[in-house]
Here is the input.
Amino acid sequence: MVEMLNNNPFSILAEIVPPIAMQYFIIAMILLIAVGTIIQMIHHKNLTYFFNNAKKAKLAATKELGIGEKTGIIAKTTVVDIGTTSELGFGKRRLAHVLGMYGTILFWISSAVLVFCYTGVGKSDSETWSMLWHVGAILTCLGGYWFWFFLRVDVSAEAHPWYRIIKADLFVLALLACSTFGLAWSYTQFNGQMGLSYLFLTLFIASNLILFGGVYWSKFAHMFYKPGAAIQKNLAEADGSRDNLPPPADAPEQFGLGIKREEPKHY
Ligand code: HEM
Here is the structure.
């Protein structure tokens, strides 16, 4: 089992599929992300809203931020808010997201490194990158299945069964399908179960096509919008424009316990 983790499944696949075809596949997936995100931005007009709002907020700014100050805020937002998904508070939801987020980033980067640098005739092997590919897929599964079975709001708070699927689940399900079928493909290929390995390879390719081809319909692009919104929010806080919200009252910001008053379970 551990030996499987050191194995590059793309390298064995290269015996029947030319590495250049795999490289083109990755480039095609990147193009699909770009096209899906751009069409979504045009259609939903979220970028237009975002820039109009930022322009309006600038007029309300009470302080001009220097370039150093801006860089500092952006760096801190990137490391703290974005890097640890701080908007999810402290707890399971944030931990599950961080596992899935870093797992996916690792899985994607190592897929590209394995296919472009370590697959094909005369190319060497890299146990480290093969290991990172498997670890990335496993972390994505841990975070994603945890979210899917236990943390989704409509499951954890509204008592819907875990198997109820709606359009908004396209992203998480396609992401999970990619890492699950990727792992199953690697496992069966390593164990010489050729029939099963081709089945899982086909499912792996299909789920990648759905994940990247479905960007326009899914939550995929939140990984670009969320960081943009976090940076804008923190800059607006620092320059005093507060996103055109009213200034803070004299009294301390006390809003009571709110949703923390008790677990939501009144169905
Ligand atoms: C590679 C990067 C990322 C991946 C793979 C990823 C993955 C996911 C997944 C699978 C979900 C659950 C989808 C659903 O609600 O059906 C999710 C939700 C969410 N993501 Fe991300 N995400 C990424 C980046 C980010 C970033 C950078 C932020 C914020 C700065 C962010 C904030 C959120 C929030 C707030 C939710 C809702 C969570 C909840 O309902 O518990 N994500 N993300």
In short: The chain has one domain: 2-239. Residues 2-239 form one domain. DSSP finds eleven helices and no strands in the chain. Residues 82, 85, 87-88, 93, 97, 100-101, 104-105, 144, 147, 151, 168-169, 171-172, 175, 219, 222-223, 226-227, 230 surround protoporphyrin IX containing FE (CB under 6 Å).
